[in-house]
Amino acid sequence: MPRLYEPGRKFMQDNARIHTAKKIINWLQEEGIELMEWPAYSPDLNLIEHLWAQLKQWINDHHPELINMGKSEEDYQRLFRAIYEGWDAIGEEAVANLIKSMDSRVNAVIAAKGWYTRF
Fold first, then answer.
1. Which among 17, 1, 20 has a CA at the least distance from the CA of 9?
2. Same domain, yes or no, for 47 and 97?
3. Residue 118 in domain
4. For the stretch 83-114, what's the b/e string if a residue is b when 16 or more beta carbons lie within 10 angstroms of its beta carbon?
């Protein structure tokens, strides 16, 4: 990560325990990586989680046979193909729409004092 980080930028991560562990926070500080302030509980602001949910729903709708898949190499290859197919199907417009929704999401989270919103 230090190779990707540029001074003046802020690193964003959610408040999962692994991200907020003292050892991680200390390492980030030692590396000079500035963190973005993040509400204690704010799933509405984590856009990747919304994309994961869309992808999971797409796979369930288009490949229901994978719901009870086994653990063979062939099963994993079928899942990987479905994931690639799903990402293509979701497309850039879905990502752009989520990004466009950030102002509304931030304002809703502020109004809800960090709790759930309609998003």
1. 1
2. yes
3. no
4. beebeeeeeeeebeebeeeeeebeebbeeeee
In this structure, are 22 and 54 located in the same domain? no
Q: What is the pLDDT of residues 20-73, one digit of tens each?
A: 899 999 998 998 888 887 776 677 888 888 899 999 999 999 999 998 888 999
Nearest CA to 106 out of 37, 51, 9 is that of 37
Q: Is residue 119 part of a domain?
A: no
pLDDT at 114 over 70: yes
What span, in angstroms and rounded, lies between the C-alpha atoms of 77 and 14?
A: 30
**Rg of the Cα trace of the chain?**
18
Contact 113, 48 (CB under 8 A): no
Q: Tokens for 77?
A: 């290859």
